[in-house]
Specification:
The chain has about 260 residues and is mainly beta. About 10% of the residues lie in helices and about 50% in strands. It has 4 helices and 20 strands. The strands form 4 sheets. Strands 1, 2, 3, 4, 5, 6, 7, 15, 16, 17, 18, 19 and 20 form a 13-stranded mixed sheet that branches. It has a 3-stranded mixed sheet with strand order 10-14-13, covered by helices on one side. The protein has a two-stranded antiparallel ribbon with strand order 8-12. Helix 3 packs antiparallel against helix 4 (about 155-165). The protein is globular.
Length: about 260
């Protein structure tokens, strides 16, 4: 937890990339379990006019966030609106987007890797073609391709082939790309308590939702719908399933969860 103050945000739109630091970037990324693409908002302050002019509706947008070297993708989307206004002394460019992760992963790729290349390198390299950083990458066996590797096909299919060859599995939850060993991951869940980033737990009483509690924690880019969490707190102690939530630029993740 020593690197929690090393907050990093990266916004990629088209072929351009902006980072916080040094720029100020606000974001709010929603996620839930329904089939409607999730909405997102991102505001970047004091961009150059050339940068502002480069952002258009329909362009691909990816947002990666995290602490220190632990960053992952929280949005793979398409820009639906962009408006720039002056806010006091600042110029604020507000970007609205919809999450369409599957569209990214279905991109066709053809790339040849030299002899001796490792599986984890190829996976990270292929995902970075579309700006995605895996939220977790743990392989049972990190295969070394002694004769090289020919990556041809949809990115999702190629990555899945490599993952299987490493006796591991690929899990895609909303925007989260999780690669883990076969005996780990979805059944184990994240442990959340005060030491690991849990901020608060509240009981919910909502007739229109299956959620039983709301929780707030330090931003965790790997949490998405259907993530299993193990909660340790005075108000709740046990396993829960994430129903909906949002990642915010105050570096918190807020979720509604159901007790399992």
């Amino acid at each position: 937890m020593s690197n929690l103050f090393m907050r990093n945000t990266e916004v990629i739109i088209g072929s351009r990339k902006w980072n916080n630091p040094p720029l100020d970037i606000d974001f709010n990324i929603k996620f839930d379990t329904d089939s409607i693409p999730d909405e997102a908002e991102c505001t970047i302050y004091n961009l150059s006019q050339d940068s502002i002019n480069s952002i258009k509706r329909g362009m691909n947008i990816t947002i990666n966030a995290g602490y220190g070297g632990d960053t992952g993708t929280i949005l793979n989307g398409v820009v639906t609106d962009v408006v720039t206004n002056r806010n006091g002394l600042d110029i604020a460019t507000k970007i609205k987007a919809l999450n369409v992760t599957g569209q990214y992963l279905n991109r066709w790729v053809h790339k040849v890797y030299k002899a001796g290349t490792t599986a984890d390198f190829i996976i990270k390299d292929l995902l970075m073609i579309i700006g995605i950083k895996p939220n977790q990458l743990t392989l049972q066996e990190n295969v070394v391709y002694k004769r090289g590797f020919n990556a041809t096909g949809k990115i999702k299919d190629v990555v899945n082939t490599i993952v299987r060859q490493c006796k591991s599995r690929l899990i895609i939850r909303n925007t989260a790309i999780i690669i883990t060993t076969k005996d780990n991951g979805i059944d184990e869940g994240f442990l959340l308590n005060k030491k690991t980033g849990l901020i608060s737990v509240e009981v919910l009483d909502k007739s229109d939702s299956v959620a039983t509690h709301s929780i707030e924690l330090l931003l965790n880019h790997a949490i998405n719908p259907y993530t299993i969490l193990k909660i340790e707190s005075n108000k709740l102690n046990g396993m829960v399933l994430v129903i909906s939530g949002e990642h915010s630029s105050d570096f918190t993740t807020k979720c509604e969860v159901r007790v399992l």
